[in-house]
Queue: 2 jobs
Job 1
Amino acid sequence: MAALKLMRAPQKYVQGKDALLQFEKELGFLGKKWLFVCSHSGYKATHDKIEKSFGDSGATRRYEIFGGISSNGEIEKMRKIVADEGIDVVVGVGGGSAGDTAKATAYYEKLPVVIVPTVAATDAPCTGLSVIYNDDGSFDKYLFYPKNPEAVIIDSDVIAHAPVSFLVAGMGDALGTYFEARACDRTHSLSLEFGGITRSAMALCELCYKTLREYGTQALVAAEKHVVTPELDAVIEANVYLSGVGADNGGLAVAHSFYNGLTSLGGHSAPHGNCVAFGTLVQLLVEQAPSAEFKEVQDFCLSVGLPVTLDEIGVTADEQVRTIAKNSCVEGETIHNMAGDVTPDELYDAIVLADALGHQVLGDNTEGC
């Protein structure tokens, strides 16, 4: 029996310049006692606008700077605050770890959760899962939730004043969305929500890619100048909403398996999205996509500063490539959603070719891995 098709998304998505000035107006219906789980930078970037939005509403707000990673200890600390103060709503403010901590706290305490991203570096704000770590920083588990966040609210002006490298990484993460979902759809693989893939999901994934292609370079320049333009707003939406809801309901394939394989090297510093972008190029070679499509994606990467070679993501030795290929293909990895499956040897060949084609287009005569 074929899997039932399903679609999940945040209940409310709000985005725009100075959106945080409307925080209480848009979300005040959720409760009267609020806990804001903030990164240091997230607190600085959002506090004054959020406070101004509440005015004399009578709602209480508790701002708590969390420890930096979504660890079990941090989650327990936030749960105690919720219990002691009778909190109604939990809000994650900052990057992915702040959001993951807030999601987990709200889940365990059976409360609504709101996510306030202060960078557009990944699609995590809209997804129904968290990455949880042990207190020593080691990986513990993926925590899947029965629903997505009640709301995501993004102030585009905050994103425009964040480091541009975050926006670029977000475009890299979003770049894989359509191609990974397309691969899953072809093989009738399950989405991240363990359901069949809807036409709606595929439409969002395709729009994500089209938006990046059409507005990516203009959005990058706008962010460099710290101005909010329609092009920047379009790419923020692609990075966070279209990619987040698309990936959740469309599924993953080679691009994210490549990233997971890369992490097995330990100590890599390239942003998640940059690695996913290169992994997308690898996937196109694995599935023998038309050369025109590969060039289109490669050209996009070049236009916004995403990597097209291995050394740009810190991979410099052949043995590293073989380790990545091996660990990308372990049981349970999303690479197995590809038609005909993929062996470590096949993936190794595709990685080497993607790297060589990158050096070629850069006019670099040095040998890659």
Note: Residues 199-224 form the longest helix (26 residues).
Job 2
Amino acid sequence: MANPVRRGLSNILKKEANDIVILSSLRTPITRSYKGHLKDAYPEELLATVLRATLAANPNLDPSLIQDVGVGVVLSELGGSKAGRMAMNHIGIPTSTSFYTVNRACSSGLSAITNVSHQIATGMIDVGIGAGMESMTRNYGSKAIPTVLWPELKESTVKDARDCIMPMGLTSENVAERYGVNRADQDAFAVASHQRALKAQQEGLFDKEIVPVHTQYQEVDKKGEKVGDVQQVTVTKDDGIRANASVEGMQKLKPAFKENGTSTAGNSSQISDGAAATLLMRRSTATELGLTSSIIGRWAGTQVAGCKPDEMGIGPAIAIPKLLEYTGLKTEEIGLWEINEAFASQAIYCLRELGLEKRLEEGRVNPKGGAIALGHPLGATGARMLATLLPEMERQGLETGVVSMCIGTGMGMAGLFVRE
């Protein structure tokens, strides 16, 4: 089958009528599960917030022209499909708009954006929204790893089958051990992520991508028990960033997943709550509707690749080369990279394998921090990363950017985006 995307930088940068363009890409703040200011919010409440903000950011678009909404969900998979549809109708998108959810674990948000892009590319729809939502506070404890399984799988003689439910922390330890990523480098990487995120927050670099959430919140004590009265709050900032992060502090943390291991609560991504949404349409449709001045970027291709489940973190190091081959680009032709920091171990390995260590130092990889500082709300992360990527591409004057992440059970995904 012929490659459905254009190949080569000059071709990719050309504007054509059938481009899949982006008119807005927004997110809620990402906050700490159980302790953060969105802990009492529902995932569909967060989704409603970004969908409402998407309509507000595009006032000249009739909501009835949005033909489909795809939403990445992971832990709230079953209820999310119904609650998400309810949220969509609740904020003013009509019942004529269809709705579905996507679950490809950590890449669900990027998968939703890609699916909507494919729908537009094939002529199935003209306008759609790719989004993601997750409340790990409400769903993490009982649903992160399935416990009720076909007995033959639980006792499978095929290691790769059994390893699909290996705790993610152990896959991080495997990457560190197999590929020589030491504890000191992981701790230093984690501190740098917090420092970059803190600087970006202080300079207002997240303001363009974040929409405030008006919700309820009740304080908790050190034991996690609720105390005091329920308050009405407006949440405007990510709250997982540690202003006092230091290597010395990181070194004091005990291994979280394995005795004598190297992955800790400090050098791993935070479990988090949040949502994000991206409005996409065909360029010719934007032209017909008089919306070309609202275009901020476009989708240019996505690839996914599999790897061994017990070292799932290496996924970006496999998916990114596949994306570059698919689009006919070279590493040096990518201006900005957002690579999810599921664990410092796998992020460091991927940057080394891809030859991006210098790009990290130059502020071209996760320049505003990553999931270690910002958090990793599973179903929303891919869409959150795009909302972070596009304003930074504009700020730095860069034309191309890649969003990539590892995926539980052993995969990697990478998407290419172009700024306008």
Note: Residues 34 and 224 are 7 Å apart (CA to CA).
